[in-house]
Amino acid sequence: MSYDLMAMLPEHYGTPPEFVELQRVLGLMVDAAAADTDLTLRQLFPTTASGWGLQLWEEAYGIPVDLSRPEDYRRTRIVAKLRGQGVTTVELIHDVAAAFVNGEVEVEEHNDEYYFIVRFVSIYGIPPNIDDLKRAIEEIKPAHLELIFEYKFQQWGDLRPYQWGQMAPYTWQGVLFGDHP
Predict the structure, then answer these.
(1) Average pLDDT over residues 29-38
(2) Averaged pLDDT, 73-100
(3) How far is CA 150 from CA 11, 24, 121, 127, 171, in A?
(4) pLDDT tens digits for 161-177?
(5) How is the beta sheet containing 105-110 ordered, strand by strand?
(6) What is the pTM of this model?
(7) SS3 breakdown of the chain: % helix, strand, coil, rounded to 5?
(8) Least-confidence region, from 85-89, 136-140, 161-165
C-alpha cells in the first residue's frame, strides 16, 4: 500500500515543489513503517512467522534452530510443540501427528498391552519427516507406552481392476505409493 499524502491534504495547501517533495518522502517513510509493522505482527504467530521470528519461537520452546531447513518445516515443528503442551491424550497425539504429515491420521491405543499405533490414512508410504514426528511424539507420550507407526502402501489386490496397458505409464515405485489411475 502506498500513501499519497498530498491526496490527503486540503487543496488550499497548494503545490509548492518543496512541500510536494516533503509529502512524497514522508509517504515513503509511512510505507516503510507500515511494512515493518506488518512484518512484526506476522512474527507473533508461529504459522505466519519467518526468519528471525521462527528462530525466536524455536528458542522459546527449546527446539534446535536449523536454518538449513525450509521455513514450512520449521513452522510445523513449532506448531507440533505447541499442540503437545498439556496432558497427553489420544487427541493430542493425533493433532501432533496430523501437523507433521499434513494428512489424515488415526491413533489407536492399546493401554492394556502398553502400546499405541499412529496410522497414516490419507498418504501412501513413509512421510518424509517421520524421524521428527517420532521425536515429537516421544517427548509427549507416557514413557511406558511404545509408539508404533503403521504405513499405507498399495497392495496388489487394489490394482485388480486395472489392465497392464492402463498401468504402463506408471512406475513400480509410483504405484506402490498410490500413483495410478
Answers:
(1) 90
(2) 83
(3) 71, 62, 9, 11, 24
(4) 888 888 888 887 777 77
(5) 105-110, 115-120, 146-150
(6) 0.53
(7) 50, 10, 40
(8) 85-89
Buried b (16+ CB within 10 A) or exposed e, 84-118: beeeeeeebbbbbbbbbbeeebebeeeeeeeebeb
| pLDDT at residue 1, rounded to an integer | 63
Q: How many Cβ atoms are within 10 Å of 130's Cβ, its own excluded? A: 16
User: How many Cα neighbours within 13 Å face the side chain of 176?
Assistant: 6
> For the chain, what is the mean pLDDT?
85
DSSP β-ladder status, 115-120 and 146-150: parallel
Task: Please name which of 165, 170, 135 lies closest in space to residue 154, comparing C-alpha atoms.
Answer: 170
Question: β-strand 105-110 against 115-120: which pairing, if any?
Answer: antiparallel
pLDDT at 33 over 80: yes
Residue among 98, 113, 102, 99 at smallest CA distance from 148: 113
For residue 125, what is the DSSP state?
Answer: B
Q: Is 133 exposed, middle or buried (0-12, 13-18, 19+ CB in 10 A)?
A: buried
Average pLDDT rounded to a whole number, residues 136-163: 85
Closest CA to 79 of 55, 52, 100: 100
Spatial separation of the C-alpha atoms in residues 111 and 144, rounded to whole Å: 10
